């Protein structure tokens, strides 16, 4: 067990845990922050296995936290990448209606995006969107130019670098196996030893419900993970799709 407790301990070195730790070190310089991670690296699970899209905020209910945070986060992520020389591309995306029945829903997305503050949205007819994606079939589309793509593993690595530069610590091979309050601090028991902290934030991703119960909290929350599949276009066929294309949903 560490002799000197951390002010804050964060469980999980995915992008949420690392972003939280980075923000904490920025707001409270000099306060000790510790991140524990069961794997041997950052971004080992969801953060490193997604589509890499910087979402614009098109789909979420206007006025909701998701809508506000997604629009603000899109701009914030691009600024962060620019400040720290992380490659990203503001490639844009198309949402394509393939039948007349989908056109009203496409217009609803257009209006929702405008209400959410998504910039530079455009409705395109077939000739217009085929200038962007010549091999895309459909009758009309919504162009969302603020959508981007980035390697979130690189973003997570930069977060980790900034955390450690600010005096924080990331401990790997530290799977959480127990949590309790010893009367003076929160004790987080891991496979790398036990750590004490005044505050603990659970950023354990798909295991956050299990960690919640480990801490003795009663909850009806249960995370049911599912496996997604990604397919890569062969190099000789990559001319068929230039940037993200989405169906109307």
Key attributes of the depicted protein:
single chain, 249 residues, alpha/beta, FAD/NAD(P)-binding domain, 2 domains, six-stranded mixed beta sheet, four-stranded mixed beta sheet, 13 strands, 23% strand, elongated
Protein architecture, described:
This protein is of the alpha/beta class and 249 residues long. The protein folds into 2 domains: 6-49 and 157-214, FAD/NAD(P)-binding domain (3-Layer(bba) Sandwich), CATH 3.50.50; 53-150 and 236-247, no CATH class. The chain is 30% helix and 23% strand. The chain contains 6 helices and 13 strands. The protein has a 6-stranded mixed sheet. A 4-stranded mixed sheet has the order 6-7-5-13. A 3-stranded antiparallel sheet has the order 3-8-4. Strand 1, helix 1 and strand 2 form a beta-alpha-beta unit. The longest helix is centred in the N-terminal third of the chain and has 19 residues, at 65-83. It is elongated and about 65 Å long. 31% of the residues are buried. The model has no long low-confidence stretch (mean pLDDT 95).
């Amino acid at each position: 067990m560490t002799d000197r407790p951390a002010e804050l301990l964060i469980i999980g070195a995915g992008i949420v845990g690392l972003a939280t730790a980075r923000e904490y070190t920025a707001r409270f310089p000099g306060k000790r922050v510790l991140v524990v991670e069961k794997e041997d690296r950052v971004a080992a699970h969801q953060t490193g296995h997604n589509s890499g899209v910087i979402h614009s905020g098109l789909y979420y209910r206007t006025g909701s936290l998701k809508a506000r945070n997604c629009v603000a986060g899109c701009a914030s992520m691009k600024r962060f990448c620019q400040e720290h020389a992380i490659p990203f591309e503001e490639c844009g995306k198309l949402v394509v209606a393939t039948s007349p029945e989908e056109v009203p829903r496409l217009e609803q997305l257009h209006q929702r995006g405008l209400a959410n503050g998504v910039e530079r949205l455009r409705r395109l007819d077939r000739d217009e969107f085929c200038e962007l994606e010549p091999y895309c079939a459909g009758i009309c589309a919504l162009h969302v130019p603020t959508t981007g793509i980035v390697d979130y593993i690189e973003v997570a690595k930069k977060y980790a670098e900034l955390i450690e530069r600010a005096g924080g610590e990331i401990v790997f091979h530290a799977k959480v196996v127990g949590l309790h309050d010893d009367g003076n601090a929160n004790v987080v028991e891991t496979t790398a030893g036990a750590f004490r902290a005044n505050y603990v934030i659970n950023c354990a991703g798909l295991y956050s419900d299990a960690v919640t119960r480990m801490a003795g909290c009663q909850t009806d929350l249960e995370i049911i993970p599912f496996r997604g599949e990604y397919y890569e276009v062969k190099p000789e066929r990559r001319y068929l799709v230039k940037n993200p294309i989405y169906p109307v949903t």
